[in-house]
## 1
Amino acid sequence: MNRILKILVLILIPTTLWGQLTPVTDHYILNPLSINPAYAGGRGALNVASFFRRQWVGIPGSPQTMTLAVDAPVLSSKLGLGLMIVSDKMGVSKETQIATTYAYRIHMKQGGFLSFGLGAGLLTTNTAWSDLIVLDPEDDYYLIDTRMFAVPDFSFGTYYTSGDFFLGFSIPRLLSYRFDFDKNKYSLMFKPEDYSYMLNTGYLVTLSEKVKMLPSALLTLSAGNKLMYDINVHFSLYDRLWTGLSYKNDRSVVALLQFSVNNQLRIGYTYDFDFGKIGRYSNGSHEVMLRYVFRYQVDVANPLIF
């Protein structure tokens, strides 16, 4: 059984159909640039965040993701620029994404701001097929030499905020690619049915001078019309400590803890409890976060509220 599980984990990697799956950090609610380019510059200052995620600990070849996100307003509060670097490793495959993001904010007459964002970058993948554990070691498909492929990557998003309410919609990857084993290369495909559509929303509720509550949700419609959702409730104590829980319909619960050392530096940790079949063989998933917000004089109305 253990051998079969290893084979499944190593084979089920995003290399045959590239572009459907987008690594999502558990800290996305507090770093929304990871899922939507329209958030770039939304904090009103230079913002640098880094993440490390170890998924399904205890299973060989399980995913590991490292993320660096940088964004800031430029020229005026209407414009925002960002940079995302994501390294995702799973089994014998390693995928790296480098993308720049641009956001433009529009002041709405009825109040609030509407932001549109675009992302453009490069995706690279490096797969060592010969390292796979297969039933037939002589299978030509798995004797292909390790090679690196690079393809363009684009994303789109929009974001609305008014007071303590926010609503965002995004398509993290506008292009998808299918690997052709016969030609040993990726083929570009324009198939909206292969997109992942993300909708996230939330409202910050002030319970007292010391306590705030942020209920939120993330809906993801992925290829094959598969609907995934996260239901989140986070609490802020003294604007210093964030804690909360998330429920995912893939049968997992996420516990989050973040602490603001000061008004600029924040550290965080999450742990995923998996109640599905994989949870029987793994020790959960761990993620750590470090964020620093540089202060300089650029005023932004309706900045990010979390």
## 2
Amino acid sequence: MSQIKDKLKDLVENGMIPEVEAYLDDLHILLAEGKQSEDDETAMTEMESLLVELQNVLAVIEEDKTEDSEYQRIYDYIAQNLEEHEH
């Protein structure tokens, strides 16, 4: 596996997916307690979609049929979004 695929896989598996799952857990708690807002419901739908997309990225990496340049583009996009949300 190329270095960029390793970096992308690590970012998705150890960074993005755990964060999305933790946020979804928090949203599910609000839902169970009846404390969710309309924004929370929207966020839950969006996070569930994001989780599926992240799992799809991992599946594509495992198939190993994509050019490294595409993995680099995906990695850069995710890293840029993470950086923007940190500031």
